[in-house]
Amino acid sequence: MDANKTQLVYMDYNATTPCDRDVVNEMLPYFTQMYGNAASIHYDLGWYSKTAVDNARKQVANLINADQLEIIFTSGATEGNNLAIRGVYEACKSKGNHLITCKTEHKATLDTLEHLQRIGANVTFLDVDDRGMINLDELGKTINKETILVCLMYANNETGVIHPFAEIGELCKKNKIMFMCDATQAVGKVPIDVKNSLVDILTFSAHKMYGPKGVGAVFIKDGHKTDIMPQITGGGHENGMRSGTLNVPAIVGFGKAAENAMKELESNANSKLVPLRNQLEDFLIGLGEVKLNGGNVKRLPHVTNISFFNIDGKRLLKSLNKFLAVSSGSACSSASLDTSHVLKAMGISSETAQSTIRFSIGKYTTEDDIDFAINKIKGILASLRPMNTKT
């Protein structure tokens, strides 16, 4: 380990991931050589682009064991969540206007549901316990004859806590209602098989799995497209579900990233993240005056969320960010000074939430990076915490 190491060590993989070099190389020809519009299939340049999009759709579908026609390309999971939630509400509100989610969902879900609530929807926001888990019995009791959609994420973006995906699907099937899952943080990191699960809609983004920003997908189970009203109209692209000229280079990159992720899942490459995460986590817990948020439940292998006590949270994050790229919560909420809604829902005080740090590592994280982080964190905490004085 180089004691003079000064570069920023990246530990914010939940915010975004670096684009793999082979992903970039796959994209490049579609900017300058094969630049046709994928809808212009009456000549070769357009046909080449359409063929590339079809191949990427197959690669993305394979990653989650879907059929190609069940994949709709979007600009990312935020758009996908809007398409799914608004689309189901508009298409199915004659059947009922009740939607169910929980208080720790991503803002892309919560803000969308709050908007629908203002225009007539009845939305239930389920509580979570101090680990960030929903109560399945409460979910079951909340479902009624007006319920048309349950929106619950696969894994939380701040804590890594994994919801009981299979059990939620069973409840929805039993009650004949649709189950939508924001799986942005999970796809490509843990195995997801939509064909052998009971999820109806699943959203995710390329940039969380070493692909380009600005592209994502919605999986819509075969037979459910009529239950979703398109939210972007003007040409009938993507089987009428999402109009607009396709971003061919980004879609090609998404496909390559999905192919890479599938190979890594098959080889269990992500297993190396658990000991690295645990090494960092065990050190931090061993320091005392800290709390692991979301502990003792199933979590993603690369995320740890730690509250530090007896310290100024703003000064802590500012000091850490000189050496470590870490965050205090969701990247989409970082511009806001509000306390993390996820931690608040878990019963964590505003003061403690403000001194809480999310560490999320990835496939380029090394043991040297963990050692470097440990040394820096130890020194920063020593300098910021008030000295114990004898009386």
UniProtKB/TrEMBL annotation:
EC number(s) per entry: 2.8.1.7
Swiss-Prot/TrEMBL cofactor(s): pyridoxal 5'-phosphate
Reactions catalysed according to its record: (sulfur carrier)-H + L-cysteine = (sulfur carrier)-SH + L-alanine
Pfam families: Aminotran_5
GO molecular function: 2 iron, 2 sulfur cluster binding; cysteine desulfurase activity; metal ion binding
Domain Aminotransferase class V: 9-371
Lineage: superkingdom: Bacteria
Entry keywords, A to Z: 2Fe-2S, Iron, Iron-sulfur, Metal-binding, Pyridoxal phosphate, Transferase
InterPro entries per UniProt: Aminotrans_V_dom (IPR000192), Aminotrans_V_PyrdxlP_BS (IPR020578), Cysteine_dSase (IPR016454), PyrdxlP-dep_Trfase (IPR015424), PyrdxlP-dep_Trfase_major (IPR015421), PyrdxlP-dep_Trfase_small (IPR015422)
Enzyme class: transferase
PROSITE patterns registered for this protein in UniProt: AA_TRANSFER_CLASS_5
UniProt family annotation: Belongs to the class-V pyridoxal-phosphate-dependent aminotransferase family. NifS/IscS subfamily.
Protein name: cysteine desulfurase
Native source organism of the sequence: Flavobacterium shii
